[in-house]
Design a protein that fits this description.
By secondary structure, the chain is of the alpha+beta class. Helices cover 30% and strands 31% of the residues. Bound molecules: magnesium ion.
């Protein structure tokens, strides 16, 4: 059995007139994340972690933001597609761990809902999907409230 790990990182700008969708959960806030798809920064980081662990490139390669098919795409559906890609190649997910770095609003009230949504999307038990929250301590683009960043790691195993 071979163990595989991958990392993912993403960031999106906060802007007026957009929804704030993090890990497939819409969080009430006066601003949301800007971008081509629904700009779910956490789903995107997790997609890259899974693709990384599986050796399958990155999100931009699979879902280019120049492609109209992915305009306002539900990133949870992209995550489901990537999870299916991984299992189609005979790899099994072990766990994923994520950190959302955001100054406001507070992620804590939504953390369990996010874990549940991500767990369903990738086909893992909730205890194997961890979601953490951090802030920028008022430093940098996150600290100034200009954007949100997310990090993820994923572990897979491949029999043989
Ligand atoms: Mg992104």
């Amino acid at each position: 059995m071979t163990t595989l790990t991958g990392i993912g990182y993403d960031s999106h700008r906060l802007t007026d007139g957009r929804r704030l969708v993090i890990g497939g959960v819409e969080i009430p806030h006066e601003r949301g994340l800007d971008g081509h798809s629904d700009s779910d920064v956490l789903a995107h980081a997790l997609i890259d972690a899974l693709l990384g662990a599986a050796g399958l490139g990155d999100i931009g390669e699979h879902f280019p933001d120049t492609d109209e098919r992915w305009r306002d795409a539900d990133s949870i559906q992209l995550l489901e597609a990537v999870a299916a890609m991984v299992s189609a190649r005979g790899m099994t997910m072990v766990n994923v761990d994520c950190t959302v770095i955001m100054e406001a609003p507070k992620l804590a009230p939504h953390r369990q809902a996010i874990r549940r949504r991500l767990a369903e999307a990738v086909g893992l038990e909730m205890k194997r999907v961890n979601v953490k929250a951090s802030t920028g301590e008022r430093m940098g683009f996150v600290g100034r409230g200009e954007g949100v960043a997310a990090l993820a790691v994923a572990a897979l195993y491949e029999p043989g």
